[in-house]
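Next up, sample data.

:::
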Amino acid sequence: MLRRCIPRILWITFPVLALFGSTAKGADSSIAQRIQRGESFLVGLFDNSLQLLPEYKGSATYWLFHDNYLAAHLLANSRSDLSERIRSSLAKFGVTNSGKIEIVFDEAKKPLPFRTYVLTNVALVEGKTIRTELVTTNLLAGWEQYADLLLLASVAQVRSAPADARRNFDKASAMWDAEGFNDPASRHGGRFATYKLALYLIAANRLGISPPHRVEVIERLLAMQTPDGGWITDYKEGKPLGLANVETTCLALLALKTLGEGPYGR
């Protein structure tokens, strides 16, 4: 997962054009339908009692950051009512920032240098645990080894240091091994993380480039969407591992929404 701890649908190979349709109209329709399904998945998880989304269906853990922060953003247009209720809950629990995930929406005040993060309990409500990620003051050593952090750094540097942004993107891109981003986290867990596929597309969009592994990454990302609209967290040898959860689904949706944007587009 994107939270910096030990990283917690059958694979079907389709040509991207077959998935999107052979025309721009077909492509837009296919992506729009996938986005709608993904948003419906998030809406279906909404807990009216806590005004938050659990980590995944049936979970008793509710992450303020990253999950609900991301969900508030991704539902802002289609379900502004739920988005506002989530934001109100974040404020109620006194957690309105994390320091890292906000990079994807250009809302991180001091995103770099990366610092270590702690995962902490915020409250226990009716047997449900409210948790969040918080930034510390300690510098994070060795972050350049991880594809996700390289991609986040790239997004953070687009305006202030474009050459460094491209350099970090290229370092992450070099970790691609034809199935996923092979970094220490992937090797430790023996699996590839779906959210890194999404971050790759998001970072490429911010840089305004057509990335070298774009077609393969899109195919793998689309293949990890479940029938109910969510995105599976991990995969190995073409097979999904884990459950569809909020964080992965939100980042996948954000990536899909960038596909028709920017100079490289479709």
User: Anything to note?
Assistant: The chain has ten helices and six strands. The longest strand covers residues 128-139. Residues 16-258 form one domain. The two ends are 28 Å apart (CA to CA).
